[in-house]
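Database export, one record per block. Field names are fixed; values are copied verbatim from the stored entry.
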Amino acid sequence: MQKKYILRDRCTLLFALLIFSTGTCSLFGNTRGVNLFDLATYQHRIKGTVTDSGGIPIQGVNVGIKGSSSGTFSDEKGTFYLEAAPSDVLILSYIGFKKLEVAVGSSKELSLVLEEDVMDLGAVTVNAGYYTVSEKERTGNIAKVTSKEIELQPIVSPLQSLEGRMAGVEVEQGSGINGLAPTIRIRGQNSLRNSRSNNGNYPLYIVDGIPISSTPISSIGSMTSGSGIDPLSTLNLKNIESIEVLKDADATAIYGSRGANGVVLITTKRGNRNQDETIFSVDFYSGISNVSNKVSLLNTQEYIAVKKRAFENDGVEPTESNAPYLFLYDQNRYTDWQDVLLGKTATTSNINMSVSGGNENTSYLVGGSYLKQGSVFPGDFDYNKITLNFNLNHLSSNGKFRLDFSANYGIDDNRIFMGGDFINKALRTPPNSPAIYNDDGSLNWEDWITDNPLAELNRPQDIETYNLFANLSMSYEIINGLRLKVNSGFSKLDSNELIRTFKDYFNPDIWYRVNLYSLKGNTSRQSWIVEPQLTYNKKIGGLYLDGLVGSTFQKSNSHYFAIQGSGYINESLMKNIEAADQVSVLNDDNLEYRYAAIFGRIGINWKKKYFFNITGRRDGSSRFGPRNRFSNFWALGGAWIFSEENIFKQHLPFISFGKFRGSYGTTGNDQIPDYGFMDTYEPTVGAGGLYPTQLFNADYSWEVNKKLEVALQLGFLKDHLNLEVSWYRNRSSNQLVGYPLSATTGFASVQANLPATVQNTGLEIQFTSTNVQNKNFSWKTSLNATFPDNKLLRFDTIEESSYANNYRVGEPLNISLLYAYDGIDPETGFYNVLDANEDGRYDNDDRVVIKNMGRKYYGGVSNQIAYKGLSFQFLFEYVKQSNTNFLLRTAPMGINNLPKEYLSSWEQPGDVEPQKLSESIDAIYGHVYAGSSSLNVTDASFLRLKNVSLSYRFPQELYKKLGIESGMIYINAQNLLTITDYLGPDPQGGASVVPPLRTITCGIQVNL
């Protein structure tokens, strides 16, 4: 290729000399003659390199010729090629940098430097789902994170990357077990349905235009059934270009019934449109993980002393019958059970490879990755993920036809174990328990009063998930400004689960006959969607119109099947259900969901100062009866960039950007079980026929969420400082829940709309600051804070419903109704709880204390510091909240080990908690009632160093020496530090979870 260019350049030079000679002869031979050729209009091929002020190549810079439609993009090493004439002027533009205009002249190679623009709001675009809009001109509330902020994190789920980064978005990892679904709430809980099997609070997930079921994948394992398996875990984090979260009515109403709880848009990466270039990229990291926190428990000497003191306080002599752990167990043995069960150092490694390229019309990207993460549990348990992705984009030469295709396929292989009470065993097993293993390596059962905790490892749980997302979008410009578009997508998920119970799980001293059994579960989901659309853009003077009309046709099928086999004669046969002596079907559900809608949008832009957005959608869902199957949703949004007015420019020059915006509208919710309005029946075992399981109710209709928002955006000092403050109020009414029925009807409940309204209000603050910005050094700070307020605004006849013991009108949904703690009885030394109605017993009428278990406020602070090729980033997440008291989670009686706080328990009047050590029945009652009192709620606020990364990008002069185009090395740490007064394993997950893992990785990224 280089020889070709040299030969062509030589020919061009000879041709230019010929032209010069001809023109010269003509000029001297005839004074009235003219040049036959105009050198200024001759096009030649130029090569350019684009970097930032620190010399770092910039990929994706738009390079165009002024006054022409010709152009290209820079590749990953900042290089571009273009045919241009000496008289042409190149225009270079890129998000976050100022536009650059440069004359071509006679140069064949250009080295260009873009100057950083502190905050070019007009250049930053956000994905609003069916359309894109600039950050400057958006009327809705859309939060965004980019690949640069998340791609280096050693995490599994894309949702984990949002923790602490967005106002109004709560993400809780909940557990350090890989593959489990995080909990995400966008502006609070809107629905009373909050159980795992019937939850009306999940947001809508959309990957490259394809709606994905946000319901976690069902699991039958004890450690995984609580949260379920994450349906997004099969995505490759390094293939994600951006994640946008839509929050208010203006942003979500276009999704109608699916947007009540917000929308999460995930966009994957595309190839680079750059001719004659193919980029091969490799990214590899490896590291270690361990539990981020351990609880301070009693050692053997302290344990024995505390247990003996309890008997002394009771005036009882400990014996082998009432305290066998003080006699049968070795008084000098010490085992740190947290270290044994949760203390393993897990290794992690990831490799990601991609090939991208194309030309001015067509680009492609092909990639794949492999991730392996070990576990902190003893034994061979790990998580493996393989992903493949393909993206193809084509634009016709005349710019009228466009095609975009993307496909993402992922395979998860997660090997853990059934779990049972495994985490609590790490915290409760006595430190002087017998030896774990026999001399031959088998589990030791001798002298164990309880089960050997490691026996739980002999119930392995294997989960395999196969997930495919594919999207095809085609559009054609019929006439100038009018474009026809068809978006289609297909998704298919299959998850297989196998739990086997081996012989070594059972204590041979108790189980003289062992029954080997297995559990198998399968979840299958399949969905397709087609969305024809028509868009129209028109500019008339200072008026710009942007219109959209379209329709949606979607169908989803899901199947859940669970089966149990028992009586295997050999453990090696347990993967084959046919080898079981007895087989029982536990569940067999086949569900179909159909959805159709028409939608439209009109955007009005007047002189780039006044913006108005009208959105409407009519939805139809098969989950409702024929009389209420369709419903309408709409939104109005507006914005005024007042900083463009002359009066503000003259009198408030320090405000470089100012915008008021607001919105109001409705969204719906159809997140209810399929066939909920129908009479349903289930077959009985044997010849019993069918029996009814659900009553018919064709009258219940959609939940409606009415959303209101007002916001102010300000930029100061040439946008060095940017502030956005948003206030919102969401009211979700017509709550769809199970209405309880009298037992005489034969049914526990019927699906119905209750006269209840849930309100979420809040204040969101987002602030960014460019502290320093010069050629070699930059420092940027971002802060977000959310102050939410959730309450049950209205619930008629709540006293007559079964919800009277769960909710209170005027209070948050996430509350605990508790007894009033009345201190320690100075006579007995035991916890004392108030009998509110003085009837001599404790029941729901005595639960007079209301504690909010939700977040009071939360947010994050991040900093990005760069010096030449060196970059340093860190993110702190902070949460103000309450959680259950760890000291009351474990009864101090009996064999259980205890936290060190019990070394200073109550001894005499005036002492504080915990209560006097005792084995008496009164002490047990005191502990039980205190566990249901206000004492059981404690502060669990925390400040967590969520992510730290340090990277170094190789300078250009080093590329040739290394034989690469570009490269970077980096170090990343996750969950490095948590500052909290909470005594349990994790302030967020609570007292019985595996804390989030502290992970440190080192990696290298190379482009060839």
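Remark 1: The longest strand covers residues 582-606.
Remark 2: The mean pLDDT is 87.
End of record.
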